[in-house]
Design brief:
It is built from 14 helices and 6 strands. The relative contact order is 0.14. It has 2 domains: 351 residues, no CATH class; 75 residues, no CATH class. By secondary structure, the chain is mainly alpha-helical. 70% of the residues lie in helices and 5% in strands. Strands 1-2 form a two-stranded antiparallel ribbon. Strands 3-4 form a two-stranded antiparallel sheet.
Length: 460
């Protein structure tokens, strides 16, 4: 592997690891705020105990997410200095906003919320957890604005002296069509992830008969949030595909391994072959017109094939291979979609049991809910691979190729060493994070406090 391969491996490894924690913290932030709002309005001790319980999981997730997120920032200078030098005038703006605004908002109010039990007025303390939730969502917004600019550059001009992009309209970053749909999709996916985690923990506790009335309430909240959030995420994801089909037709053609232009276009539920070295796939199960609907919102819509887009790019940008890894693109899309269907079926099962008031004794469902907790993390990873792999070989669509973004002063041996070091550090961090979260998820609820008893800060 050369320097480029190793740099991509390192950034991909650290990004996937970091993104495991982003959706769960954003989702749990809003769910914890909802629990505390319910306690504030009703005074129910069970809602307070749930707030503190799931707030503990939230804090662990934020702590690991912050550590892994900082590594992402360092890599822009370490492995990708040529990229940073070229697009820093644009890309640096939303990153600075995220650090100076969203991150400090989230971290400051998280400290107030953690240590403000019985020290702050209840309304102020409630506002603190909502500020944490909003801060997490804002942080995701600024990062998504930066990433969406890489997918569809807007709001810039090319400096005639340096040949580099220069930001001319910061608001264009936040009205970018790719950002608007992509950010909403990330928020909904985060709610899905947080709700599935809350449902899994509640189901595990219900199976063991621990405070069933209390954990029945958290399971109910998780299901009521999960089903509409997942349905909306599917809808918004479909609309995002239409937007990307307009600005990144290679990404959508790769997701179907569609080498030739078609109209109308069928969607293959499963196929054999069709990768970069085999351009004649065998569609085992094909659904007529479905790809046209997903890619264009029209029953007979036209979808450009990989060969056609390759020809357009060669005419526009010069000779080169502009086709991404089709195997990764094709199966990332299907892993994300098929697992979403599984989560939806399990959540609808849970809603049916909830309606029939049988959720507390449904052992089969509780067992399934525990195991389904891994699926949103796999879905999120597949979605990230679909988005980032589909842009290759561009690091910024139409502006800079990935191979031109690596650091010229960093050797292959240096990058290989850092890959090994990061792998070992992240492996150790993964063990610590998993053990902490499992230990907290399996603990019993804190006893209900007396009306006049002070509430201590959260402990782990």
């Amino acid at each position: 592997m050369n320097q480029l391969d190793l740099a991509r491996l390192q950034f991909g490894m650290t990004s996937i690891y970091h993104f495991l924690f982003v959706p769960v913290t954003v989702g749990l932030g809003f769910l914890t705020a909802l629990l505390q709002t319910s306690w504030h309005r009703t005074g129910a001790p069970g809602q307070l105990r749930l707030t503190r319980f799931f707030g503990g999981l939230l804090v662990i997730g934020i702590a690991v997410g912050v550590v892994t997120g900082l590594v992402q920032e360092f890599q822009f200078g370490m492995d990708w200095s040529a990229y940073s030098r070229t697009v820093g005038d644009v890309f640096g703006a939303p990153l600075a906003m995220e650090g100076l605004a969203a991150f400090f908002l989230e971290s400051t109010f998280l400290g107030l919320w953690l240590f403000g039990w019985d020290r702050l007025p209840r309304r102020v303390h409630l506002a603190a957890i909502w500020a944490v939730a909003v801060g997490g969502a804002l942080s995701a917004a600024f990062i998504m604005a930066a990433n969406s600019w890489m997918q569809h550059p807007v709001g810039y001009t090319t400096d005639p002296a340096t040949g580099r992009p220069r930001l001319t309209d910061v608001w264009a970053l936040f009205t970018n069509p790719v950002f608007l749909r992509g950010y909403l999709h990330v928020l909904l996916a985060s709610l899905v992830t947080g709700a599935v985690v809350m449902l899994a923990v509640s189901a595990w506790q219900l199976r063991r008969g621990r405070t069933p009335q209390v954990f029945h309430a958290s399971a109910r909240l998780a299901l009521l949030v999960l089903v509409p959030a997942l349905l909306l995420a599917m809808l918004v994801g479909s609309e995002l595909g239409v937007t990307e089909g307009k600005f990144q037709p290679m990404k959508i053609a790769g997701a179907e391994a569609q080498w030739t232009t078609c109209q109308p276009c069928s969607f293959s539920l499963f196929q054999i072959g069709g990768g970069n070295d085999d351009r004649t796939p065998t569609k085992v199960i094909a659904v007529p017109h479905l790809l046209s609907l997903l890619a264009t919102n029209h029953w007979n819509g036209q979808v450009l094939g990989l060969d056609a887009v390759q020809g357009q790019y060669q005419a526009q940008y010069g000779p080169g291979d502009y086709v991404p890894n089709v195997f990764v693109q094709y199966w990332s899309m299907r892993v994300m979609a098929y697992l979403a269907v599984v989560v939806l079926l399990v959540s609808l099962w849970g809603l049916w049991l909830l309606r029939r008031r049988k959720l507390g004794g449904a052992r089969a469902f509780q067992r399934a809910a525990v195991w389904v907790v891994a699926l949103p993390f796999l879905m999120n990873t597949a979605g990230w691979l679909l988005t980032e792999n589909g842009r290759q070989p561009w690091i910024v669509q139409g502006i800079q190729l990935t191979r031109n973004g690596v650091s010229p002063s960093v050797g292959t041996a240096t990058v290989a060493t850092s890959v090994l070091v990061f792998f070992l550090l992240y492996a150790a961090l993964a063990v610590v994070a998993v053990l902490l979260m499992l230990r907290h998820a399996r603990r019993e609820l804190d006893p209900a406090p007396a009306d006049d008893a002070p509430l201590p800060a959260l402990t782990y």
